[in-house]
Structure formats: structure tokens, C-alpha cells
Amino acid sequence: MEAMTPRLSRRRALAAAAAAGLGLPAAATTTAAEPARRGGEFQPLRAATFNASLNRGREGQLLEDLATGENAQIRAVAEVIQINSPDILLLNEFDHDADGRGIDLFRRKYLEVPQNGQSPAFYPYAFSAPVNTGVPSGLDLNRDGSVGGPDDAWGFGEFPGQYGMVVLSRYPILTDQVRTFQDLRWAAMPGNLLPTEFYGPEISPQLRLSSKSHWDVPVQVGTTVLHVLAAHPTPPSFDGPEKRNQRRNHDEIRLWVDYLQPGRRSQWIVDDAGVRGGLEANAPFVILGDYNSDPADGDSWPGAIEQLLRHPRVQDPKPASEGAVEAAELQGGANAEHSGQARHDTADFSEPTPGNLRVDYVLPSRGLQIASSAVFWPRQDAPGSELTGTYPFPTSDHRLVRVDLQVLA
Length: 409
Hints:
Blueprint: H1 5-22, E1 42-54, H2 61-68, H3 72-84, E2 88-94, H4 101-111, E3 125-127, E4 165-169, E5 179-180, H5 196-203, E6 214-221, E7 224-231, H6 244-259, E8 285-290, H7 306-309, H8 322-331, E9 360-364, E10 369-375, E11 401-408
Parallel strand pairs: 1-2, 7-8
Antiparallel strand pairs: 1-11, 2-4, 3-4, 5-6, 6-7, 8-9, 10-11
Helix pairs in contact: 2-4
């Protein structure tokens, strides 16, 4: 136990800083009733991910929209969440602010307010932390001869925190055990795909791997500590011949692949508190996020998401919807040429290319019991279709993906 003390101390320091930035104590609560805990029995747990497109083009603009309580897009996003009612939810593309005002406003003015007759959604616990998007690197990352702007940030963004992430939970988040990997260097990954010829010997060693961040957020669900592995890798597009975004997307996904293999394979991984190594061999987890990679179609580096889908510790429930099938048939374009099944699509992307893709994932660890799964994409004649729709989307071009698990209480 004595050898563990420095490790836990560093984690507590990191988590305390993150919690302070969020503006929430570790045990913050609301009036919501906590789920029942019954020793020795299993209880249902719904985990979900949703790229909700709650990003804005100007710093502070999301806070302004949230403060009104009347923004149509945000109300529709909240309604989708209320309909699906996840117990643990990762939101991608939620602009980060240092004091956590955005999360507080979203909960208080939208989630906790009935939208179109839906029941309020209460999330007593939340976690967010800084991300790399919009953070100036001081380097000419796009090699255009000048320094500055969104292309030269550590992750593409107009301002620090754009396209951030939030974990919402009905169960306590163990903030003193959270691990973040915002600063991890790409070059540290053995056998990486870093295009060193493009970046050159000066820039290559400084590049950060994560375009936003990678988080391991432990959540206490009864007697089980469930590790929420959250990320949002860069899109594998907007590339030149060097394919730097395709390569980065692949290696951002690979970070979790190595993290799930304790021992030598994960020893290169060092979190922002200086702790080395991956996840314990028997620790239950669920991988959440928009990974911008389809296993069969689109622009991904070959085998990018398959690294996770075929991982020996990972289950793929393959969530599906009827609405995705309908959309692919109606929209045509690249959808007609896709080799993947349209029923598994999670994002309504443009035609003629790339067409609709499966890019959002909820991947539980083996050993967790899967009861059901779904993509929230209703057919046009079904209730809720007004919340998905077509461009301009009422909510987002992504769909909420959920998986129902059985977890030991």
C-alpha cells in the first residue's frame, strides 16, 4: 500500500484541479433520487454517448444560449436525453468553460425542465476537464508558413475548449481516481503512424496525441467501479497526401487498445498526473464517444476502429435503428455503395460522400451483461423523428447511442 501512495496522491491532485475547473464538489447532489442499491443482485444500467453539437463558433456563445433556457436546439437535445434517460452519458462537442457554468446551466435550465411533456433528467454528478481543441501550440502545425489559427492549435478549434466533452452520471463519479491524457505525446506511442516527414524533427516530438482528450472516469455503481473511457478522436478527413488526420484518428483509437492491455504494452502511456500504465486486467469498463471511424466505409485508416471492435476485452453490441435504414434509402448517394449495414449507422453525413456512417460507440467490457442496445433514429413516421430530421438538423448530425447493461449492485 505504501507504494501506491504517490500514485493516488497525484491522481487526487489532478482530479481536484479538474473538479475545481468544473465548479462541482466530488459529491455534488441535486434533489434527484439515487438509484436503488441492492447487495448481491444485478441492477440495470443504461450507458449512452451523444455528439450533441453543442459547440459554437465563438467563445462564450454556448453560455449565452444556455442561459436563456429557450434555445430550440438545446431544448431538442435535452428532449432526446430525457426520452432515452441514460444513467451515464458522454456528451461530445459541448464547449468547455473553466468554471463549469455551461454544465450547470444545461442541467438546470434544460435537462431538469420537462421538454414537450418528457420527464426531467437529473444528473447529480458530472465531470469535465480541459481539452486540446483551440489551445495554441505556438507551432506551424499545418506547415503553411505562419503560426496561429485553428489549424495550429493542438486540436483543431477556434478557441480553447471548443468541441469539449462532458460525462453526466446518476451515480457518484470517483473524481480522485480520474485519469486524463490531454498532454500525452504522439511520438511516445511505439509503432505510431506519426508522419514525421511532414512535421519535421522539431515539431514531431512535441505533438499531442489526443485532439481533444482521453479520460478514464471511474463511476461507483453499487459495489462495481465502472471505468468510463471517453474520447473524441479527430475526423480522418481534411487531409493532404501525408494523411495526418487519418493517422492521428487511428492512433487516438489505438491509445485505448494499449490502455486495455496492462503490462509492457501500456507502459508507454503516462497520464497528466505522471502515472504510467493502463487499466487493471479485471476492471469493468465501457468505451463511449464519437470515434469518427466506421468499420466498413468512409475515410478511416484501414483497421482503425476494428482495433477496438475486435479487442479481446471488448464487446460490440452493434446498436441499430430502423430510421438509419430509411435515411440511407431516401438519401442515396454513397449510401447505396456502402458495404456496412445501414441499420448500424449513427451519423447522418452529407451526400454524395461520405454518406451515413457508424462512428459513435458504446462498447462494454466482456463480463458485463448486455440486455439491449439501440440507436435513437426513429423512422419519419415515428414519434421523436422531429428531433433527428434532416439538414438543418434540429439537434445534431449524430444520433444518441445507448446500451443497457446489468451491473452488480
